């Protein structure tokens, strides 16, 4: 089984980290193929960058010539999953939905701890669209930019733990979801310091993707995610010099 894990930003070191986390969660015989978009922002922290990333991720997958069995969109709260589902005949798993759905098996309510406050509405919207918001106690911001997660890992863990602890104490969350692909690898340390289950979306997405492939299941094509209708595209893809 081969699974594409697509970073939503163009920072290769984040792609590498996501790929390592995915490989660690994969079963024997599952090959993880990390992909970095060829265009877009170095980090995705708002609507404009998110919509740009959606196109970049779709194009990265379309340009991949080797066969694959599933795709993971490794951006928390980002747009584009629906477009991938239209384009592909294999399962598509978004880490936002993977983390939240997994958390619901582990406790009555969950909270998400993410990066900047401006990303909170995007995550709330994605959870609502996915039908996963009813048991979400809160979405909290650590105050860290995505790229800060790599610069000072100890400070990142401290900031995440602080908000996770507040979610447990103040919001009555019973499970924490790490709300950024760049937080992959921090699960155990956050769990040790909060005393509750902590779900990493990349790892959860890998196990869900593997299960769907083994069950022989993929996206329904009868209506919402039917393939795009054939039509003339004007100046697409854009020509670069």
Automatic annotation (TrEMBL):
InterPro entries reported for this sequence: Asp/Glu/hydantoin_racemase, Hydantoin_racemase-like, Iso_Racemase_Enz_sf
Lineage: superkingdom: Bacteria
Transmembrane parts of this sequence: none
Natural source organism: Streptomyces malaysiensis subsp. samsunensis
GO molecular function: amino-acid racemase activity; hydantoin racemase activity
Coiled-coil region(s): none
Family listed: Belongs to the HyuE racemase family.
Name of the protein: Hydantoin racemase
EC number: 5.1.99.5
Pfam families found in the cross-reference section: Asp_Glu_race
Catalytic activity: a D-5-monosubstituted hydantoin = a L-5-monosubstituted hydantoin; D-5-benzylhydantoin = L-5-benzylhydantoin
Gene3D superfamilies named among the record's database cross-references: 3.40.50.12500
């Amino acid at each position: 089984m081969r699974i594409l894990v697509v970073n939503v930003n163009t920072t290769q070191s984040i792609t590498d980290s996501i790929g390592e986390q995915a490989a660690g969660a994969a079963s024997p015989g599952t090959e993880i193929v990390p992909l970095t978009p060829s265009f877009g922002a170095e980090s995705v922290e708002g609507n404009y960058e998110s919509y740009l990333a959606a196109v970049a991720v779709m194009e990265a997958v379309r340009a991949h010539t080797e066969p694959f069995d599933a795709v993971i969109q490794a951006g928390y709260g980002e747009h584009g999953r629906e477009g991938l589902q239209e384009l592909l005949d294999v399962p598509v798993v978004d880490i936002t939905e993977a983390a939240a759905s997994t958390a619901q098996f582990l406790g009555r309510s969950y909270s998400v701890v993410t990066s900047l406050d401006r990303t909170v509405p995007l995550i709330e919207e994605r959870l609502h669209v996915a039908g996963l918001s009813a048991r979400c106690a809160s979405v909290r911001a650590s105050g860290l930019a995505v790229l800060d997660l790599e610069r000072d890992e100890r400070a990142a863990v401290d900031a995440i733990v602080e908000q996770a602890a507040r979610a447990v104490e103040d919001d009555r969350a019973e499970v924490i979801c790490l709300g950024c692909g760049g937080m992959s690898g921090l699960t155990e340390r956050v769990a040790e310091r909060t005393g509750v289950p902590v779900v990493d979306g990349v790892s959860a997405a890998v196990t869900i993707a593997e299960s769907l492939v083994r069950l022989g299941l993929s996206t329904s094509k009868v209506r919402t995610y039917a393939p795009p209708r054939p039509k003339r595209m004007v100046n697409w893809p854009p020509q670069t010099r």
